[in-house]
Write a structure and sequence with these properties.
about 350 residues, 8 helices, single chain, 7 strands, two-stranded antiparallel sheet, three-stranded antiparallel beta sheet, mainly alpha
Length: about 350
């Protein structure tokens, strides 16, 4: 496969009016892989066939808000409802859904009293409400301190969105009020949450614990005066949080006990999703290959190799001539392959 299509030396006549954005084949493949991996991270651990309601308040799951069923949620997020992945497919297909990414300790609302009599197609027997569910402005389809949708067609500035691990709202990096680290970081807590949970200021850049034997509290005695968004390079900072009885009671009172739950971090959920998705793909591929007899297996391998070799040969001329590979070029290749497939029984069988 032609893996390195360098388009840096392409002349201007190959791009019309500088309006065509060109990518190398590697760029396209890497982008596709990244999209698939991101989807697997969020959705891979969720069941797309059964409503999650009967599993209770899940530690974390992918959720959606339906503005078609509950239009009043646009103005009041407390009237909004969170629906699980399966319900988004089987109960709200074609509706206006707000993707909420993941939320912690949430139970699917689909079909409860918030839906004004409309029942869930997957689980009709549900309580009227889920009292422990927490709702924020995301259920109205808005985010950040600017209270704008994402993506925002009226915002000309490209910007990344970062989720606070406590309130679980999403923030434009430029609206956090502090400089975002140039290097990688694992978690962020917004300035509003830091202000509400001042104990976090004791863990701002120091691991020096209390020396009081009577208190037996490991919370550092020093306290930062910098009340603003905090970035943590890795999740190990959670291990430094004191777990003495007084601190545990404080976490419970402030509703942040999840910070000391080793299964709470989002990246652990994502890794679980990726692993599940990989297992499903590998199982599918294995079952497919095992279902073929010897002749079919040889034909399938031959068909794949034929596709790979033909595509490599086709793309070779673009590299040699320093031409940009465009969408029409790829369409031309596959149109030609489809025409040849009609004349080759082996390739036809491979495609079935």
């Amino acid at each position: 496969m032609a893996e390195n299509l360098d388009t840096s030396d392409v002349s201007d006549q190959n791009v019309e009016d500088s309006e065509v954005v060109t990518l190398s084949l590697n760029d396209v493949l890497e982008l596709e892989d990244a999209i698939i991996e991101d989807a697997a991270a969020v959705l891979g651990a969720s069941n797309d066939k059964a409503c999650s309601y009967n599993e209770g308040y899940l530690k974390r799951q992918a959720l959606y808000s339906c503005l078609t069923c509950i239009p009043e949620a646009r103005e009041n997020p407390e009237k909004g409802a969170g629906i699980c992945l399966a319900c988004s497919y089987h109960c709200h297909d074609g509706h206006e859904l707000v993707e909420l990414y993941t939320k912690r300790n949430f139970r699917c609302d689909c079909g409860n009293k918030k839906f004004n009599g409309t029942k869930c197609n997957l689980c009709s027997e549900k309580d009227d409400s889920n009292e422990l569910n927490m709702y924020n402005q995301n259920f109205s389809g808005i985010y950040c301190v600017c209270h704008r949708p994402y993506p925002d067609s009226e915002d000309p500035l490209p910007d990344e969105m970062i989720q606070c691990i406590i309130c679980e709202d999403w923030y434009h990096s430029r609206h956090l009020g502090v400089e975002v680290p140039s290097g990688p970081f694992a978690e962020m807590i917004c300035g509003s949450c830091v202000g509400k949970h001042e104990f976090l200021l004791h863990y701002d850049g120091t691991k020096e614990g209390s020396t009081s034997e009577e208190k037996k509290c490991k919370k550092p005695e020093t306290k930062s005066e910098n009340v603003g968004a905090k970035f943590w390079q890795d999740i190990s900072w959670r291990n430094d949080l004191c777990t003495c009885n007084d601190c545990l009671e404080m976490y419970k009172k402030e509703n942040v006990s999840f910070l000391i739950d080793p299964e709470d971090p989002v990246h652990l959920y994502e890794e679980k999703g990726k692993a599940k998705a990989k297992e499903v793909v590998e199982t599918h591929n294995r079952n497919f290959m095992n279902s073929l007899d010897r002749v079919q297996l040889v034909e399938a391998i031959a068909g794949y190799n034929d596709l790979k070799e033909n595509l490599a040969e086709y793309l070779k001329k673009f590299v040699e001539n320093k031409k940009v590979v465009k969408e029409d070029d790829i369409r031309e290749f596959f149109d030609g392959m489809m025409a040849r497939k009609k004349q080759k029984v082996s390739v036809q069988h491979f495609c079935r």
